[in-house]
Automatic annotation (TrEMBL):
This is IS4 family transposase. One of its GO terms (molecular function) is transposase activity. The keyword Ribonucleoprotein does not apply. The keyword Flavoprotein does not apply. Residues 124-335 form the Transposase IS4-like domain. InterPro entries: DUF4372, RNaseH-like_sf, Transpos_IS4, Transposase_11. GO terms for biological process: DNA transposition. Belongs to the transposase 11 family. Keywords: DNA recombination, DNA-binding, Transposition. It comes from Ureibacillus terrenus. Residues 11-70 form the DUF4372 domain. It comes from the Bacteria. It holds the Pfam family DUF4372. Gene3D superfamilies: Transposase Inhibitor Protein From Tn5, Chain A, domain 1.
Length: 416
């Protein structure tokens, strides 16, 4: 095949956000006015590559472009200085990358097969936030505490049996509490269930959700005031130690809820008691307890992002630079999920990223071959001894009179 006709992996990765689609989404007509070669789209492409490879600095990105002929051919640009990268990162607005992220989310959800985790629910949403800590002297605009700065990513994800899909994100300085973003992240949607932790406990909002028939499951704070209306029999075999209908709050401080909730006590994997409240009265207590365990999926997502993308340290110190980097990290995650879905790959997303690192500027066939390569090792690994089988074999020998070998000092009955 002619080398010029080979489809490169980087082109396939960015096919869903090609140059035409990029400019159509950002809706800024004069963004490249007076720009000769380093356009906003080329910056976007370079930052995607930097995220996949977890490049440590803008200087490293500049060096990588200068030393990699394949990058130069794909991006039609020979070199870019560190200062040009820094300037572009500072002047481009985060809103444009936010639009691209939400577009990719819609594409992923359209391509994802609907698989209900349990009966009677549509989507399962999980809401939480994660803070990226920073030095206060270098990032004064993100002041968080007296000696600390930080940015908080408020996130809603859709959880399926196979994927964790970021659905909606809000980036703010870390001083904004989780509860302040509930109106943005919790939307009225029939048949959906929202999972969130104690940072989102708000009795007035719970009453509003009950009024709108919006279903939720959350943990209850230890100091909550509870009025028990009635109780169901516990089921310790299923780790259900309490199942009651309750009112939360009290009249004195005006927190008393108008709607009753369901309170369930179960245990986590460490044996600690977990108190759950929900307005789902149509599900069994075990189903609710099992659903709440899916809340950890968002923790897995945050951990994956911080370990395998570049969001713990930043290329620039301005607000735009930091937010742009985080949005592009989320976009990179979405692009990798789309590659996994497109080729119906059932392995881990980390392996998709590793294959991208190795084959990003090679032909697409090289990436597909790497992705589906079968391991050469066929051994099942070290297997445990079947002590019961060996003991029964010795007993059988004894019963049949085959005992002469037991007088041999070189015989070890553990290795037959």
């Amino acid at each position: 095949m002619d080398k010029d006709n080979i489809k490169f992996t980087i082109k396939e990765l960015l096919d869903v956000i090609n140059e035409e689609k990029f400019y159509d989404l950002i809706k800024i007509s004069d963004i490249d006015k007076y720009v000769k070669k380093f356009t906003a789209y080329k910056f976007f492409q370079l930052m995607i590559v930097a995220q996949i490879n977890q490049m440590e600095s803008l200087t490293r990105i500049s060096q990588k472009l200068k030393n990699t002929e394949e990058m130069q051919k794909n991006f039609l640009i020979n070199e870019i200085s560190t200062s040009q990268l820094s300037r572009k990162q500072r002047i481009l607005t985060p809103e444009m990358f936010e639009r691209i992220f939400h577009y990719l989310v819609r594409v992923i959800l359209a391509r994802t097969k609907k698989q209900a985790i349990i009966r009677n629910i549509g989507k399962l949403y999980v809401i939480d936030s994660s803070t990226m800590s920073m030095c206060l002297s270098q990032y004064p605009w993100a002041s968080f505490r007296k000696t600390k700065a930080g940015v908080r990513l408020h996130l809603r994800v859709v959880v399926t049996k196979n994927e964790i899909i970021p659905d909606k994100a809000i980036l703010l300085p870390a001083k904004h509490a989780d509860r302040t973003q509930m109106d943005e992240l919790v939307e009225i949607e029939p048949d959906a269930i929202y999972l969130f932790d104690r940072g989102y406990v708000d009795y007035k909002k719970f009453d509003h959700y009950c009024l709108k028939n919006l279903r939720f499951i959350t943990r209850l704070k230890k100091n909550a005031e509870i009025e028990v209306l009635n109780q169901q029999a516990p089921d310790p075999e299923k780790l259900i130690f309490k199942d009651a209908e309750v009112y939360l709050g009290n009249h004195v401080n005006g927190t008393k809820m108008q709607h009753s909730l369901r309170l369930i006590e179960t245990k986590d994997q460490d044996g600690k008691t977990v108190t759950i409240v929900t307005n789902c009265f149509d599900l069994t207590a075990k189903e609710i307890a099992d659903l709440y365990r899916y809340r950890w999926k968002i923790e897995i997502f945050f951990k994956w992002m911080k370990q395998h993308l570049k969001i713990k340290t930043f290329y620039g110190k301005s607000e735009n630079a930091v937010y742009n980097q985080i949005w592009i990290a989320l976009i990179t995650y979405c692009l990798q999920v789309l590659m996994k879905l497109k080729y119906h790959y059932e392995g881990s997303l980390l392996n998709v990223q590793r294959c991208l690192v190795d084959c990003l500027f090679k032909g697409l066939n090289a990436f597909i071959k790497s992705l589906f390569r079968k391991p050469k090792r066929t051994s099942k690994g070290r297997r445990p001894n079947d002590w019961d089988r060996q003991f029964n074999f010795i007993v059988q020998q004894f019963e049949e009179g085959e005992v002469s070998h037991l007088d041999d000092l070189t015989y070890d009955p553990l290795f037959i």
